[in-house]
Amino acid sequence: MENPNDKTRILFVCLGNICRSPAAETIFNQIASKHKINVLVDSAGTSAWHEGELTDHRMRESLRKFGYKATSLSRPFRPETDFDSFDMIIAMDEFNYIDLHEMVRDETDEKKLFKMKEFFISQSADFIPDPYYSGPSGFELVITLLEDASLGLVNHLKEKNAK
Ligand code: 4NP
Description:
Order of helices and strands: EHEHHEHHEH
Bound molecules: 4-nitrophenyl phosphate
Structural class: alpha/beta
Number of strands: 4
Helix content: 40-55%
Number of helices: 6
Largest sheet: 4 strands, parallel
CATH topology: Rossmann fold
Strand content: 5-15%
Number of domains: 1
CATH superfamily: Response regulator
């Protein structure tokens, strides 16, 4: 699909789209805007379990503590439109990545798939851990990991745009 605004379109994906991917959407949007990177950002879940819901109240509270405000509503990933509407589709963990990979239609779709951990700068983790059954420290760890990867993603886009 032609991209008339020359914005990089990024979709963050987790399981429920109520904890990690809306947090990634919120954090990355704020960091990209600070670095004057032109992006269009959204998030989705590989499940439709929480469709229409606000971000989990525990994640909203942790985000608020870190200075962010989450406003997105949960929606499922839609392969028939999302692969065409986004340039990068970034999975929070291995399960999300495998689920997305099963939906690719061709090599073009496949090349759009990434894992958030690929963009870590100073953090190291194999994935963004699901905080749903954790206490507040699980939510705060997610935010710390997402802040680091968001900065790495900004750097990746700056390098790509400079080429
Ligand atoms: P998320 O977290 O994938 O980061 O949004 C979860 C949200 C809900 C559930 C699991 C993980 N759930 O089992 O309903």
